[in-house]
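WARN no homologs supplied; continuing
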Amino acid sequence: MSCALLLTEPEETTRAFLERHLTQDGFEVVEAENGSALDLVEQARPDLVLIGDPEGLELCRRLREGEPGRSWDRAVPVILLGGQQSDPVDRVRAFDRGCDDYLDRPFHYDELVARIRAVLRRVTPPSCDRLEAGEIEIDRPTRRVTVAGRRVVLPTKEYELLVKLASDPHRVFTKDELLREVWGFRSRGRTRTLDSHASRLRRRLSRPGAPPYVRNVWGVGYCLLGD
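OK structure emitted
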């Protein structure tokens, strides 16, 4: 399931860049313009608010304090993007107003996405102990994996890759995302680690005459189940 992200960013080029890439990375992006952020927080109920507005400190304060006659989740996660001239004092003030994270400009997109996911993990209730995808069943407390009732023993990284893919089995996870979140790599480089593990995992999960699990989407990444 995708996460809804409210984006308020006055600079048109940056806003278009973030909207395009965040959408490609699986987020449902709602853009706020012309002071509409509070209205959209109330209406859209986003999972996270990304503020690049010059009035971000004031907006964060109003989100946290609430307003008479209005209703929104005052605990909604907020990430502030600092201005071009921001300094350590701005960062301290941002956290004082209630933001969950703060990123200086110029920022790197990969770091921004990593911080968004980290904030969402902190506020999301622990995932269920049992995952199911097709004929695959995963019992997370015992790390037991079965396919159509057959026990499959997986090495650590193949197990962690399977859990990641099974968390949203029809979604295509990018290679950079999987390498970052399963292996902790900051960039893909020329490594074949993911492809090798995905290939071995596919073989271990295979069933005679059945479509394969762990599907390679050429040029993008991997998903557990096809359409």
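The first helix runs from residue 12 to 24.
OK
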